[in-house]
Amino acid sequence: MENGGFLETLITTVMNNLQIYIRGIHIRFEDSITNADSPRALGLCIQTISLETTNSKWKPILSQQNGQTSVYQIVKIDSASFYCNTMCSTLLYTNKTMVSDWQDKMRSGLNNFNINEEPLEFILKPVVLKIKIIVNKSNEVRVPKLLVDFVLQDAALQMSRKQFVALVETAEFMKLAEINRLINS
User: Fold this and answer.
1) Interatomic CA distance for residues 74 and 35, integer angstroms
2) What CA–CA distances, in Å, run from 122 to 3, 53, 85, 86, 157?
3) How many CB atoms lie within 10 A of CB 64?
4) What is the number of other CB atoms lying within 10 angstroms of the CB of residue 61?
5) How far apart are alpha carbons 104 and 150 in whole angstroms?
6) E strands present in the chain
């Protein structure tokens, strides 16, 4: 860092003290076109994502000490899940309009794992993931510059035949829609 300018020092300081918190992520794709008799919904839910700078014992700290040769950061993803409901009795988006309380229904999906009293049909049940990152800033050749450790707790994957067919049909439909968009542009 002896030869680095002000901007490089500023970027390094920010990266060494980075803290990011994101809560309540629910992304939902509804499809009533591919199979009109069987409207479906695909979704990704994540309760929280956080990234924090820590000390060497993985305890969050507010300020990284200057002169340290390593930066420790931890990423936590809590309650991440993916679902595919193959037969939705009601959708949040119908006739080119959103239902009035769609935000409440999306929050319900995050908190209660159901929308419109229909339980989410999980392909990936809610999991917790921790990623520990060590960035070595020393010029020592024998020491790795980056170490990453993934810890995934209790991951359960399951897919029914209906979910598999729904995913394949939706992927094929999206591929055709993209081809159609390219032809017409």
Assistant:
1) 43
2) 52, 32, 8, 11, 8
3) 20
4) 14
5) 33
6) 19-31, 40-54, 70-85, 93-94, 97-98, 114-115, 118-119, 122-136, 146-153
Q: Which two tokens stand for residue 105?
A: 């229904």
pLDDT of residue 123: 96
pLDDT tens for 24-59 read 999 999 888 887 788 899 999 999 999 999 988 999
Q: What pTM was estimated for this model as a whole? A: 0.78
Residue keyed to tokens 């509804």: 30
Q: State residue 101's pLDDT score.
A: 83
Name the more confident of 181 and 126.
126
Tell me the H-state helices in 5-59.
6-16
